[in-house]
Amino acid sequence: MENNEKWIIQLRKGIFEVAILSLISKKAKYGYEITSELNEFRAFQIPNGTIYPILNRLTKNGWATSYWEDPMEGPKRKYYQITPTGSEILKERLEGYNDIYHSLMTMSKGDE
Amino acid sequence: MDKQYFFSNNVIDSFINDLSRNLIDLPQNLKEQHIMEIKSDLYESAVEKERAGVPDKEIAQVVLRDFLPPQKLAIEILGEYSEINFDESKKSLNFIKYYTVLSIGCLGALAVPIAMGKINISSNLPFALSFILANLWLIFGKIPWNITTLNFLKRIMKVSNFIFAIGFACFAIRLMVAKTIESFTFSYFIGYLILAILYVVFLKAFYNKKQA
Fold first, then answer.
1. Which of B86, B190, B206, B208 is least surrounded, with the fewest CB atoms within 10 Å of its CB?
2. How far is the alpha carbon of B29 from chain A, nearest alpha carbon, in Å?
3. pLDDT tens, position by position, B63-72
């Protein structure tokens, strides 16, 4: 059971990177906005605040860039935007996950 | 929703302080970055709750419901920085603490002969040696300096000013006891002050060098 949980944590860690890259691939978004959008999906429920280490990792890898913006109204926000390298990584990973998904489905249906 | 009013709320203030305390192992710049982003999230959430019609008095409590408790949030954040050697960081901080005791403590102890009006070499020698060794240890020891240890060194610099006060206090005690300025007391006092000045100047130069 414990191993299963660890596996899920590892899997989610990798998938969250792809999910966040997908969200910021269309336009720059700030942390709270990304968390809110992720929380719309049951598989991507994440408590507020815990997204920043992942965003930090994406920035450190050069897959995303960030900048602060101080709007006339509302709080100061840090926006995250995908980089060309990030776009390539996103494309590769989505293809990879797609391959894995189809292979698993084919295997599970093999004996039927 | 007024930003200052929201962050002055006790519950929010305590949440941020707790989180900051639990992130002590992170380098200062990373810690500040995370705190700033989480503060932005807290406020963003508060504005959203206000729009949703949550009464002002309840907003802070409702906002925090969507966040992990500070300890757990800190664990999540620290978990992403496994490449940072926290043990190493703790060791270097401990080293600085030992250094403080050995250097400032021993220098303070070396002021005692001023109050006594005489010097007992055998009892003062260990303090003098410890003081010298501690400073050699600081200069030549392979300490991984980071923001936390540098901040601690800065605090030592402030505390080190007390060694002047100890010297003057001992001199004043001797004056009250002997009711005259003895040549030994006076020359030892001057020597002590020169050593203290050199020590403070050394600490400042060392700090500036490491900070650069």
1. B208
2. 13
3. 898 888 898 8
